[in-house]
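Async update (no meeting this week)

Hi team, since we skipped the sync, here's where things stand on the single-chain job. The sequence we agreed to prioritize is pasted below, unchanged from the tracker. I ran it this morning and attached the output directly underneath so nobody has to dig for it. Comments welcome in thread, and please keep replies under the output.
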Amino acid sequence: MTSPKVEEGQEEPQAAVADATSAEGYQRALGARQIQMIAIGGAIGTGLFLGAGKAIARAGPSLVLAYAVAGLVIFFIMRALGELLMYRPVSGSFSEYAREFIGPFAGFVTGWTYWLFWVVTGITEVTAAAQYMTFWFDIPQWVSALIFTVILYGVNLISVKVFGELEFWFSMVKVTAIVGMILICAGILTLGFSDAGDSASVTHLWADGGFFPHGISGTLMTLQIVMFAFLAVELVGVTAGESKDPKSVLPKAINTVPWRIALFYVGALVMILSVVPWTEFQPGISPFVAAFQKMGLGLGAGIVNFVVLTAALSSCNSGMYSTGRMLRDLALNGQGPRAFTRLTRSGTPLVGTTVSAALMLVGVWINYQWPGDAFTYVVSFATISGMWAWIMILISQLRYRRLADRGVLPQSGFRAPGAPYTSVFALAFIGMVIVMMGIDKDARISLYCAPLWALILGVSYLVLKARNPGNKAFAGR
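Output:
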């Protein structure tokens, strides 16, 4: 379905807005319980469980501050998205909004880039899951990656209801585990049990080289890892077209962002770094698993490893879900192959999901070729492609708000507080993160790939536009 074109000075008919909120052929099978847990689970993934190990080594205790500030920016982004979703909740989400408020090329780039983001993220999560399996079994990483990819692909072919239910339980495991870890660490700090009981103290947050052991620059250099940890929180926007009651459920899910970040990131890291000095953590090893091992709780480390494995598989599952929907939105707008519009009887975009899952198998090859460096490579590229969606959300919200305040469009029932200033601040923060990625030699590879991807998209857009001169999807705003 093509986004309604908005002309300045012309009020959009209410019927068009109502039609835009249709399910576009999908089944509205995701209930409040599932949406809430998808939103919560989207903030808990590989970036926290695995990537935090490298970030702790670089920034020390100041990583807590980095997560807190970045978390505030994420809240600004999510409230901007929420304002747009209450104006027009559609499955294409930010791709649709970019197409409507910025232009058809912006929608084209956003849709394909977000699709690529989830394909790359799927590779990332499969990579992490394969690494977690080595905790128990001495098997090649690529074997585990292959098995997980095939299983999750099968799950996503059943129905969106099954996807939502699986994500609910995945998220429940993650939430229960993190709350449990926080309580155990709190018990060690207050009661002194376990091997770490005698040395556990909140003074570890500033006693071992200070709160900024590597200076402010060390903290800034972790921002791309920190932002990667928050990628996927915007997934609730993609579920809008399959939510039973998006106008009621989505605002509640978005408003849980602050306490999610405060508890799962800031709270968990404060507790872990108080029990175990930051100097004892190493890159590539989950800080949660390492913490329990150093506490002498061997069984606990195994349990945590199972939880982080669940987190990685949950994120990969979400990736397969979103890629099929994004490809279908592009196809419905004439900006992708027509075959992607086909739905199964259960409302699953079969072709798009299948193509995406096949490309995720590239992760198997990456694990086979570079088992030690795979995570670093895919994290950096996923971060830059994922942040593009955030940039489009913020710019679209700024333009929508300007039109709504002038009476050209109806006001959203969920206005972003502090906008436009909060949106501008979030854009500036993302710009700073991109600069930091350019300075970091490990993350710089993603900036090398971005121009190539932009060139591919630019040429593809011109070719499609030339072949479809009458298609509204390629008309100017």
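Quick observations from my side:
Residues 298-332 form the longest helix (35 residues).
The two ends are 16 Å apart (CA to CA).
Reply here if anything looks off.
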